[in-house]
Design brief:
The complex is a heterodimer of chains A (180) and B (384).
Chain A lengths: L2 H17 L13 E3 L9 E2 L4 E2 L7 E3 L9 H7 L5 E5 L11 E6 L8 H5 L5 E3 L14 E2 L1 H5 L12 E6 L7 E4 L3
Parallel strand pairs in A: 1-9
Antiparallel strand pairs in A: 2-3, 4-7, 5-6, 6-8, 9-10
Chain B lengths: L1 E6 L2 E6 L6 E5 L2 E2 L3 E2 L1 E7 L2 E8 L7 H5 L7 H6 L6 H16 L7 H29 L3 H22 L8 E2 L2 E2 L7 H23 L3 H7 L7 H7 L4 H5 L6 H4 L20 H26 L20 E9 L2 E9 L7 E5 L1 H5 L2 H6 L7 H7 L4 H5 L1
Helix pairs in contact in B: 3-4, 4-5, 4-11, 4-14, 5-6, 6-11
The chains are: A alpha+beta (180), B alpha+beta (384).
Bound molecules: iron/sulfur cluster (2 copies).
One iron/sulfur cluster binds next to α2 and α3 of chain A.
């Protein structure tokens, strides 16, 4: 390698690196900001249109009034991760005479969303909540009552502002806070 | 006599010892090699013999397929290669569709969406390759860059499928969700952004004089050896053999998109990096074409197969695709039940493993990580 070739190659590398000093930073402060790329929609299955709605596949949301206790979700999940077990819930449910509903063990769930595809009664959805860490395994077992309520707001300390990714050829990729 | 010691005093296996040479066992738990053991024999600091020892992360994926139906098999089959989860799903789904006899019912839009996600995954996987190769070279700038630029496409994939890594997006009969609003614009922006970044990667890795000194002429694989050893994918093309399943045996709608297959003659470590940079560029071209076709395309994305119809007739099916690491193929036999009778997965990493002893021979110990990683060997994929 000639000395001039070496020098020009080396200077180009340094220039490429230095340019990043003036570019915006791509990383974001995680617990304070959260990227939610998908539209604000629940992930759910539309049998009529044979498709899923676009949404992140996070914690499930169960509609207790629509669930018939047909066990299709449990049967599907048995071959996947075995996260779903049916449990009995006290109370009157006109569509669900036996009163059995799915409970989901998030220590096992792989968030494939195929249980949502299996539910033909429009009762099971997925929310964009992915922060499910707990101190012990038992707390990861969510009963039907728990998954029928929308996810709780995260504690104030880690309450996230939603961010979106801006792709700019000149200034680089960076995140800004989402408007809504 | 020297033994491989698991704990002091417990001898597991005898390592071969040659006169005046030292045998080193790298792995199985090693940040560089992945979960996989590599036994090298060195003379001074030159490798005289390298012996890959796969199987540490064997999960029995093929056996697991026999107790699950064609839909339940989707999530676990992604696990061997989560970096390229669409790459491993693609041949499985094609073979499953053939055996379920719904091959002709797949909507056109679904075929394009499959190509789109497969190319996303190729880029994501190649960026990961560049990141690890860079850190083996001591080049932490490119490690950070590729890890960050990977995110761009992973976020887009999450927008489309709902998950960032394990998409579970392909199903027999089509794909699971449609293009969300704003996706086409954001993807075209991402393609423009990544194209501008690729020039910088080229400067940093290929035109960089230090990288040239480290990688040019190191770990050379000749075209003849590559063919004889059955190398596949970018490693084969880096040795000058133009062989890409997307061209030689077009599947899905790959024959309707334009791209070319980059090749290099040298077959050294540097050309295996160059080929991946080129492939990212080609994939970005495919993504752009497909996204433009999808813009405004109407129609269903899935031919819904009801649970009872998920029963295949007795028979067999075979499908192969070009995954990020090379030819990936599935062979499914059905005996007429709800579950496959036998599933055989042929992964590119398993085929490329045979290159390790050839490439590492006469390489200096300091170069072992970069030559080893330059073939993009992924132990979990090879062990299945
Ligand atoms: S998302 Fe998948 S793993 Fe989780 S409960 Fe549903 S089917 Fe089971
Ligand atoms: S959630 Fe859906 S699939 Fe599961 S038991 Fe209820 S109705 Fe059936």
């Amino acid at each position: 390698m000639k000395a001039s070739e070496f020098l020009s190659g080396f200077l180009k590398v340094v220039e490429s690196g230095l340019r990043h000093l003036v570019r915006k930073r791509m990383t974001l402060r995680y617990p304070e900001f959260l990227v939610v790329p998908a539209p604000d929609e629940l992930f759910g299955f539309k049998p009529g249109e044979a498709r899923d709605t676009n949404g992140l596949r996070g914690r499930h949301l169960l509609d207790l009034d629509r669930c018939t206790g047909c066990r299709l979700c449990e049967i599907t999940c048995n071959g996947i991760s075995g996260a779903i077990t049916m449990v009995k819930v006290e109370g009157q449910f006109p569509r669900n005479k036996r009163g059995i509903f799915p409970s989901i063990d998030y220590g096992r769930c792989v968030f494939c969303g195929l249980c949502v595809d299996a539910c033909i009664f429009d009762a099971l959805f997925m929310t964009d909540r992915e922060e499910l860490a707990e101190y012990d395994r038992a707390a990861l077992l969510y009963g039907p009552e728990e998954i029928s309520k929308p996810p709780k707001e995260l504690p104030v300390k880690i309450r996230a502002k939603r961010a979106e990714l801006i792709l700019d050829e000149r200034r680089g990729a960076h995140h800004v806070q989402r408007k809504n | 006599m020297s033994y491989y010691q698991l704990v002091p005093g417990v001898y597991v296996e005898e390592l071969p010892e040659k006169e005046g040479k030292i045998t080193v066992s790298i792995g199985p738990q090693h940040p560089g090699s992945g979960h996989f053991r590599l036994i090298i024999t060195i003379d001074g600091d030159v490798v005289v013999d390298a012996d890959p020892d796969p199987g540490y992360v064997h999960r029995g994926e093929e056996k697991m397929c026999e107790t699950r139906d064609y839909i339940q098999n989707i999530p676990h089959l992604e696990r061997p290669v989560v970096l390229d989860s669409a790459g491993i799903q693609f041949p499985y789904i094609l073979a499953a569709e053939e055996i379920l006899d719904i091959k002709d019912k797949v909507p056109e839009k679904a075929k394009y969406l499959r190509i789109l996600l497969a190319e996303f995954n190729r880029v994501i996987s190649h960026f990961y390759f560049l990141a690890i190769q860079a850190i083996f070279l001591g080049h932490s700038t490119v490690l950070e860059w590729s890890m960050a630029d990977r995110e761009v496409l992973m976020d887009l994939a999450a927008m489309l499928t709902g998950a960032r890594v394990t998409f579970a997006y392909f199903v027999p009969g089509g794909v699971r969700s449609d293009v969300p609003s704003g996706f086409v614009d954001q993807t075209l922006k991402a393609v423009g952004y990544l194209r501008s970044r690729m020039k910088e990667y080229w400067r940093m890795l290929v035109d960089n004089p230090f990288m040239k000194m480290r990688m040019e002429g190191v770990g050379v694989l000749k075209a003849k050896d590559a063919i004889e050893l059955g190398a596949v994918g970018p490693n084969l093309r880096a040795s000058g053999v133009e062989y890409d399943i997307r061209k030689v045996d077009p599947y899905s709608l790959y024959d309707t998109v334009e791209f070319h297959v980059p090749t290099y003659k040298e077959g050294d470590t540097m050309s295996r990096i160059k080929i991946r940079l080129d492939e990212i560029n080609e994939s970005l071209g495919i993504i752009e074409q497909v996204v433009r076709k999808l813009d405004g395309m109407r129609g269903p994305v899935r031919h819904l197969v009801k649970g009872a119809a998920l029963r295949a007739k007795p028979g067999e099916a075979y499908a192969r695709t070009e995954a990020a690491r090379g030819m990936m193929s599935f062979y499914i036999i059905s005996d007429g039940g709800r579950t496959p009778y036998r599933v055989k997965v042929d992964t590119p990493s398993f085929r490329n493993m045979k290159l390790i002893p050839v490439l590492l021979k006469d390489v200096r110990v300091a170069d072992v990580p970069i030559v080893f990683w330059s073939i993009d060997y992924w132990p979990v994929e090879a062990d299945r």
